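Action item from last meeting closed. Structure (296 res):
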């Protein structure tokens, strides 16, 4: 009887030991699988062959893999490491090689890479790759320009890509205006004014021509005053105290009007700006509940 009890106790101990080792092994395997998953993405060249005529479906599957990977990290409130973002970026680059025409991949991934991780160059590289296959889609150069301007604080490159986007058929006319505005902020007056003049000469729509002409007139007025400020500085070895002093010293005969309804102002740097910020005033409600544009 005592021998049977000893066998039973031994069997229970063996089972407990087996379960403990199995649990440890399973946990270790899970960690190993996770590391292996982070370190490897199936190259698009192999996926393309394996997918046959279903490359779009294979691309969608890999895109979901990237979405779920980052989403799971966020859901678990885990820190997303540089290694994680490397893995995500490799997934996206494999996806766009499989299906370079699906815009949502670029939109989602570059949003995550800029706002989520600060990987601005990776986002730009992805958009530049997509632009090769989608040359008639203004959104690619537009988003590249936005990244340069907003995240990298490079207004010059931002303006250049906005200009490229503005010339693509179907692009909203505001892109040319944005490009000229950024170029003006950067001090490149010739670029800003020449861009608007080129867009104006090529445009046939009366409404859009009026839109471009308004911005062009505003920038030409600011440039006229800035040139007068520079002449004043040469003549008097100082900046004027105000724009009015340019009139008083006969540097300017009259002060140009801001077509947006603002007033030109002299900054300490000698640059000329406007209280309108070179933009239409926000719309306001009328008594009937409709809107009226204050700046037009």
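Sequence:
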């Amino acid at each position: 009887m005592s021998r049977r009890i000893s066998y039973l106790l031994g069997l229970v101990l063996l089972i407990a030991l087996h379960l403990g080792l199995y649990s440890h092994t399973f946990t270790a395997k899970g960690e190993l699988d996770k590391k292996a998953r982070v370190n490897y993405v199936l190259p698009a060249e192999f996926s393309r062959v394996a997918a046959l005529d279903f490359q779009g479906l294979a691309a969608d599957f890999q895109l979901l893999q990237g979405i779920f990977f980052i989403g799971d990290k966020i859901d678990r409130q885990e820190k997303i490491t540089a290694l994680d973002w490397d893995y995500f970026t490799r997934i996206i680059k494999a996806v766009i090689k499989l299906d370079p025409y699906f815009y949502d991949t670029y939109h989602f991934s570059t949003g995550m890479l800029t706002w989520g991780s600060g990987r601005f160059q990776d986002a730009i590289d992805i958009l530049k790759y997509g632009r090769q296959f989608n040359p008639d889609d203004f959104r690619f150069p537009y988003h590249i320009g936005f990244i340069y301007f907003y995240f990298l604080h490079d207004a010059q490159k931002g303006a250049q890509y906005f200009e490229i986007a503005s010339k693509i058929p179907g692009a909203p006319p505001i892109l040319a205006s944005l490009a000229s505005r950024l170029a003006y902020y950067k001090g490149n007056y010739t670029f800003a004014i020449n861009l608007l003049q080129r867009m104006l000469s090529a445009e046939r729509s009366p409404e859009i021509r009026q839109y471009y002409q308004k911005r062009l007139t505003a920038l030409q007025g600011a440039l006229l005053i800035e040139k007068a400020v520079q002449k004043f500085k040469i003549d008097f070895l100082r900046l004027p105290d105000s724009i009015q002093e340019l009139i008083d010293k006969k540097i300017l005969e009259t002060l140009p009007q801001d077509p947006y309804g603002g007033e030109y102002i002299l900054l300490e740097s000698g640059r000329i700006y406007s209280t309108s910020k070179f933009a239409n005033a926000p719309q306001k409600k009328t008594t009937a509940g409709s809107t009226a544009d204050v700046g037009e």
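Note appended to the action item: Residues 288-296 have pLDDT under 50 and may be disordered.
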